[in-house]
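Throughout our pipeline, every protein is held as a single compact record rather than as scattered files. Nothing more is needed to write down the fold, since each code stands for a local backbone conformation. The record that follows is passed on verbatim for readers who wish to inspect the format.
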Amino acid sequence: MSRVITYMPELQGDEQLTIAKIITGMSEQQVEQFARVYRERRKDESVVLLTTLLAFVGLAGMNRFYLGQIGMGIAYFFTAGFCLIGAIVDMFNYKAMTNAFNQDHAIEVAMLIRGAFPDELSEGASFDD
């Protein structure tokens, strides 16, 4: 856990625990590279909430576009967030949606970093929860 705090002090809660599991067994060089790449790819919960609220001023689906869910973004945009019902649901689920996006990308980044440094892989390292 201290490595997460050292390299990525901005992380909190479940995201911090998930990242701590993912970087277990990585060398310091791998953790540095992971932190650099993950920080660029991760999405912020407050931005997801802000883009979700745009539905109430006529720009439904911006949160879905921001999270890379292009199909749902288009559907929300052309249906006004499924008559704002989907936008309201997203207001309550924005943290879970952001955490799922970040976790998926953290695992992807970890695989890329471990692949870039194959000689430094530790035995027993796992990406599972």
Notes: Residues 85-116 form the longest helix (32 residues).
